Amino acid sequence: RYWETVQRLRINQFYGAPTAIRLLMKYGDDWVSKYDRSSLKTLGTVGEPINHEAWQWYWEVVGEGRCTLVDTWWQTGKHCLDMCEYSE
């Protein structure tokens, strides 16, 4: 349902816990790849450090190797500031 929502609403930021990312990985790549995620610009994680395998999958499969990935472990209350877009 995540990826259908990203496609339908053209969501540009997606934030999740590493535990959830690892769970989503178990379902494989096909159910992610069938949806258009080209609107995504930033991927984020929060709550705990993300392991390398999950980071790689999140960046390559979900973010198609083009999204910025922000890992804000142990900063649960700070994530809203990290996800803001700033203009120069």
UniProtKB/TrEMBL annotation:
Residues 2-76 form the AMP-dependent synthetase/ligase domain. InterPro entries: AMP-dep_synth/lig_dom (IPR000873), ANL_N_sf (IPR042099). GO terms for biological process: acetyl-CoA biosynthetic process. Its EC number is 6.2.1.1. GO terms for cellular component: mitochondrion. SUPFAM superfamilies: Acetyl-CoA synthetase-like. It holds the Pfam family AMP-binding. GO terms for molecular function: acetate-CoA ligase activity. It is an enzyme of class 6 (ligase). This is acetate--CoA ligase. It comes from Scyliorhinus torazame (Cloudy catshark). The lineage of its organism: Eukaryota, Metazoa, Chordata, Craniata, Vertebrata.
